[in-house]
Design goal:
There is one protein chain. The relative contact order is 0.19. This protein is mostly helical. The longest helix is centred in the middle third of the chain and has 17 residues. The protein has a two-stranded antiparallel ribbon. Helix content is 37%, strand content 7%. The two termini are 39 Å apart. It is built from seven helices and two strands.
Amino acid sequence: LYTAQIRDTENPLVPLPIQYSDYAQWQRDWLQGDVLDKQLGYWKKQLSNLPVVHGLPLDYPRPALQSFKGASIVHQLPGDLYTALQQLAKRHDATFFMLMNAAFASFVGRYSGETDIVIGSPIANREQSELAPLIGLFINNLVLRSDLSGDPSFVDLLAQCKERTLEAQEHQQAPFSKLVDELQPARNLSHSPLFQIMLILQNPQVEALNLPGVNTKQLNTSVSFAQYDL
């Protein structure tokens, strides 16, 4: 588009087959009746007796009203460790995200002393190929629950995270807001409902820009996972 603009040529992009409004209408028509009941039924069963709030020790008392003020801590994994983690996930037929979820759940469990670990994670929610080129917010939040009771081995925990991640993805169309309405969790202005910790894995495949008359430089990025106490 940049090249076409400065060279005064036609828009090179192929016209989109659908628009965001088409997706919104499809979701409204599809997500009702038995389909909606099946989606919500899974989450109601999976998230029954959910902990109200995580038990991680905090530096300061939790404020009565969450402010979203925070800080960032950056830690970069050595390349050989990152490669070893990828190989470990591959050996157990799991994705890198599933491995990170298991590792993060284990980490949270150790420092909180809890065995019922609840972590939220955003999902692109673009299951249909027609949605790939669309600009718009399709993201939905998934609630991933890990059971650390019985002190499972990491391999067993990874298998559990793999199974529950796949199940969550199969039921990703249930809007998070609808889920909160259905489950009616205890509400408190000091923390978010259902989960207060998020795991976000960003693995962008960024190609170098080749623009006429412009030199570009990619900023340093890294694959990371982080914990947020909202």
